[in-house]
Amino acid sequence: MIGRKHGEPPGGMRAAVRKLMVTAAVFIVLMAPAQPSGATDTSAAPISQALVANGEPSVPPFGVGERLVFEVKYGFVGAGTAVISIPEMVWYRGHHCYHILSVAESNAFISAFFPVRDVAESLLDAREMVSRRFEKRLREGDFRAHDLVEFDHDRQIAIYPKKGRVVPLALNAQDILSSLYYVRMMKLEVGSSVSIENHADKKNYPLEIKVLRRERVKVPAGEFDCIVVEPVMRTGGLFSQKGRLWVWMTDDDVHMPVLMKSKIAIGSISVVLKSYERAEHIGSQFP
To answer: What does DSSP assign to residue 220?
Structure first.
């Protein structure tokens, strides 16, 4: 087959596996499909722009010690695992930050023809609830990538030190990993939407989170009452894949993600919670 390296799957499957594992890396809030300009109708639902009152964040429902383990499935076939955790609190350039770590790896079957190990790390300011730093290291087949961005919110610029680039930063922008935790702190009511700013790959991406319905779901980690949300880009999307993404989060103050589903051209992808560890003594961790 022209253009395919030895040991790689056919192009269609290779693309599906890459999308599957990127989903597993929990880039969930940026996996929504791009919508044509002006196609997103938000007039029917109120949009909440703010998370905190009087400039002061409330105590987060997460903290050091939280660890979420997911299984990634392509249809009924297991493809790998994704682990999202907060291993520590760090001091970064004058700010107390949650160190958020996401690791997605293909299992032995997938790795036989397309090994994947994607690592993403975010430093989320524990007081101001904005991203301070984001780094990703991707290993997907023969592909390798390493990117780093520093968020300077005082000057509203994003700095890419490896590439020597400085670009404008949206007000209070999140990175693609910290966005998940920011959404977890929001008040989610069926029929409404919440809106946040994201920054990735030198661009700013407004994101709308539509709150669709309540639903009880059963996953390997247990049975949960959930609220179902759908992330939608309000401008051009970061990814070119077509499809939609739905996320099931616990219908409580924690809003822990327990299930994600995405339709693609040749099937469906799901990310299901296998096990979890809650953070302890959250209030005492908050600086």
So the answer is: T
At 114 the pLDDT is 85
Residue keyed to tokens 């924690």 = 254
pLDDT tens, residue by residue, 39-65:
333 333 333 333 443 445 578 899 999
Residue 88 has pLDDT above 60, yes or no: yes
> Any alpha helices (H) in 116-177, and if so which ranges?
none
Q: Which two tokens stand for residue 69?
A: 């383990």
Cα distance between residue 68 and residue 87, in whole Å: 11
Residues 69 and 81 sit within 8 Å (Cβ to Cβ): yes
Please state the separation of Cα 140 from the chain's center in Å: 18
Q: Out of 62-66, 124-128, 221-225, 239-243, which region has the weakest mean confidence (pLDDT)? A: 239-243
Q: Using DSSP, state whether 22 is helix, strand or coil.
A: helix
Four-residue CA torsion sign, 159, 160, 163, 165: negative
CB 13 within 8 A of CB 269: no
Which 3 state secondary structure label does DSSP give 51?
Answer: coil
Please state whether the predicted TM-score (pTM) of the whole model is above 0.85: no
Residues 6 or more apart from 244 whose CB is under 8 A from it? 32, 33, 230, 262, 263
Question: Which ranges in 52-192 belong to alpha helices (H)?
Answer: 108-111, 178-184
Q: Give CA–CA dist 277/286, Å, rounded.
A: 18
For residues 201 and 238, is the Cβ–Cβ distance under 8 A? Answer: yes
**91/240 Cα distance (integer angstroms):** 36
What is the residue extent of each domain of the chain? 11-270
Q: Is the dihedral of CA 251, 69, 173, 64 positive or negative?
A: positive
Token couple for 196? 């946040």
SS3 111: helix
